[in-house]
Specification:
141 residues; mainly alpha; 5 helices; 56% helix; flat
């Protein structure tokens, strides 16, 4: 219920939700950049770095969350699928925008593909982090 925008839960967890938004501001954007880089690195024809950039730039603000739309739109663009849309909350359907273009239907094979994309993005983040640590270490000498 943390962060729910209903009268019943308006104040329950509001501070925690705002802190979560603030703390994840930078990681959400860095995650999107790593996902885009991973889409360029992977040779699988399913992934497209150019589409990841295009959809990210177009759709990252479509989420109600200030952070969730960044990695979600990058993944949708990288994989050529459409993510998001409406959902049922407390028995009511709430319409939401989609992210990405439906270049192809989502299929079961997309789960391991998304895993491959995320692992590659994690390796990209690790390499960048290690390079930054090395650079700082060299400068400190």
């Amino acid at each position: 219920m943390v962060g729910y925008k209903s009268e019943r839960y308006k104040y329950f967890g509001r501070a925690a939700a705002l802190i979560d938004d603030a703390v994840n501001f930078l990681p959400a954007r860095l995650s999107a950049l790593c996902i885009i880089a991973a889409a360029y690195i992977l040779r699988d024809p399913v992934f497209s770095g150019a589409d990841a950039v295009r959809i990210y730039r177009r759709d990252h603000k479509k989420s109600a969350s200030p952070n969730a739309g960044h990695p979600e739109s990058a993944i949708a663009g990288a994989m050529g699928i459409r993510l998001g849309g409406g959902a049922v909350y407390s028995g009511r359907f709430l319409p939401k925008d989609y992210m990405g273009d439906r270049k192809r239907p989502i299929e079961a094979k997309d789960i391991p593909r998304a895993n491959t994309l995320m692992i590659t993005a994690s390796v990209v983040a690790l390499v960048v982090f290690l390079l930054l640590i090395g650079f700082v270490w060299i400068l400190s000498w």
